[in-house]
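name: query_chain
kind: protein
chains: 1
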Amino acid sequence: MSRESEVLPARIAIVSDAWHPQINGVVQTLAMTVSELRAMGHEALVIGPDRFQTIPCPIYPEIRLALWPRRRLAALLSAFDPDYLHIATEGPLGLAAGAIARAAGWSFTTAYHTRFPDYLATRAAFPRGLTYRWLRRFHGRGAAMMVATAGLAVELAGHGFANMCLWSRGVDLALFHPGRATPLSLPRPIFLSVGRLAVEKNLPAFLGLDLPGSKLVVGDGPARAALMRDYPKAHFLGAMRGEALARLYASADVFVFPSLTDTFGLVLLEALASGLPVAAFPVPGPRDVLGDAAFGGTRAPVGVLAPDLGQAAMAALTIDRARARGFAERFSWAASARQFLANLVPLRASARHPPHPALMPRRAFAC
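structure:
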């Protein structure tokens, strides 16, 4: 993208199988990105399942999948007449958008938001190798694939992916703030987890810990009933958002993130922005977000990454909350949206997207 095209208003179409009313990191990322793009003067349109007849996803009924969307999607794209097309997900809408773009000779970008090979292997015993092969084919047809972290890019390069570029994430620093703390009438310390209640989030690794005080779980999903049955001492608060969620973050003592498969984890930044130290496993996602700000890698840690999650949770109680907030202030949705914009490729580009100067080392990936 040229310097001139970054300034002139652009029409940006984003096709995503994840969109409102779903509550997840993909929806949050797209919503904040669109808000920032519009604030810059661009016209951004998200085409999601809400515009189509849908059916429940077989392995995740809370998610609705568009049914035979290609004809209507083509009409919506034609009516919008975009300058850029970004395909955010690999579901029915993403597949239809890719087919439409190839038939029209359009260039487009994609994004790798979710570790589908791990999720499908966990939920349906589907071989990871086959899923990676299909994903390589899907993303390889685009001009560039955006990934959230350098660590994820290196990992995907090992699975044969190429032409990747960085699209980091942000956090709403005004909403998530330590000043929103309110008293909670629960035994301290309070250990909080926020996210989808699904098998891939590995919540038993947190709920099964022998920790003092109270365990709070925010979120909903297919595993909720089983988790409530198996861990009756934990407090399940359901899905929360906005100021209510921000107050809870700021009022807890440690944020526990048991997932082993997240590509980033927006909730990590929300917790840190609220002054809440993090305890997590030393895996991609938490490791990429915290970097050397994890305990043991710096003199001023904002979280603890350890194979023993209980040990990490207890150690995180000693971390200065002000440091957590200061670390989160490095991230903004405005910067994330500018990075997204720089990665886009014109719809009618005649050549593949050239390397972007801000990308990570070429040995990890190129764009």
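note: The longest strand covers residues 60-66.
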